[in-house]
């Protein structure tokens, strides 16, 4: 192979690699995030589309274990790999890691589709298998609400408080229960 051909191929591959890692998520709000194994996972939220705020079920990841250029962060769109019905279509929910750091949980939130979320918005994403699932229903699961906070222990217990119910969760007041 001639040197000019080789250099052209190298330039082409460098351009393709740059385009492949040049993904930047569209602006949105109300999403949740969690860090697992040096990777930030950002999920859900609302996006302005045609002058209306639309709930999203997207999932993005950003590996922060190595430096990267802040003008072109190496985001990965995992939305296409999550094509089953357990994907939460919600915003303003809370998110926390599993005890083994192989998955994360989301709970609560709300949407604009006049729908109550399955299992009050409780879902699990396996970061290795890249799959969503609905965990077993928990006894005394609290009602779905948005704008809540959560903390968790190393043994896997999540504590959630605050938040706001809506017409789909049966309560339109702020909730402040512990």
Q: Looking across the biggest beta sheet, what order are the strands in? A: 1-2-5-6
- Second-tier CATH architecture of the domain at 23-139: 6 Propeller
Number of helices: 1
- Backbone structural class: mainly beta
Task: Kindly report the name of the CATH homologous superfamily of the domain at 23-139.
Answer: Kelch-type beta propeller
- Which consecutive residue ranges, at least 5 long each, have pLDDT under 50? 10-20
Structure in a nutshell:
The protein contains 1 helix and 12 strands.
Characterise the protein shown here:
- With 178 residues, the chain is mainly beta.
- It has a domain at 23-139: Neuraminidase (6 Propeller).
- It is built from one helix and twelve strands, in the order αββββββββββββ.
- The chain has one helix at residues 3-21, and strands spanning 32-36, 39-43, 46-49, 52-55, 59-63, 75-77, 94-97, 103-107, 123-126, 131-133, 146-152, 158-164.
- Strands 1-2-5-6 form a four-stranded antiparallel β-sheet, with no helix packed on it.
- The protein is globular, with a radius of gyration of 19 Å.
- Mean pLDDT is 77; it is low at 10-20.
Spell out the key features of this protein:
178 residues; mainly beta; Neuraminidase; 4-stranded antiparallel sheet; 1 helix; 11% helix
Itemize the secondary structure elements and their pairings.
Elements: H1 3-21, E1 32-36, E2 39-43, E3 46-49, E4 52-55, E5 59-63, E6 75-77, E7 94-97, E8 103-107, E9 123-126, E10 131-133, E11 146-152, E12 158-164
Antiparallel strand pairs: 1-2, 2-5, 3-4, 5-6, 7-8, 8-9, 9-10, 11-12
């Amino acid at each position: 192979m001639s040197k000019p051909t080789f250099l052209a191929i190298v330039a082409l591959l460098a351009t393709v690699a740059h385009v492949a890692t040049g993904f930047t998520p569209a602006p949105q709000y109300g999403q949740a995030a969690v860090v697992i194994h040096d990777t930030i996972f950002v999920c859900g939220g609302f996006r302005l589309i045609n002058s209306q705020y639309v709930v999203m079920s997207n999932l993005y990841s950003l590996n922060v274990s190595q430096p990267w250029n802040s003008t072109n962060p190496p985001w990965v769109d995992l939305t296409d790999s999550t094509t089953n019905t357990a994907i939460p279509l919600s915003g303003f929910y809370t998110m926390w890691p599993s005890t083994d750091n192989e998955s994360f949980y989301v709970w609560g939130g709300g949407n604009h589709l006049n729908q109550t979320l399955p299992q009050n918005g409780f879902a699990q994403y396996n970061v290795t298998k890249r799959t969503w699932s609905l965990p077993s229903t928990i006894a005394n699961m609290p009602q779905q609400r948005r704008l809540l906070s959560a903390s968790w222990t190393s043994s896997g217990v999540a504590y959630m408080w605050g938040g706001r119910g809506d017409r789909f969760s049966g309560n339109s007041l702020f909730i402040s229960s512990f």
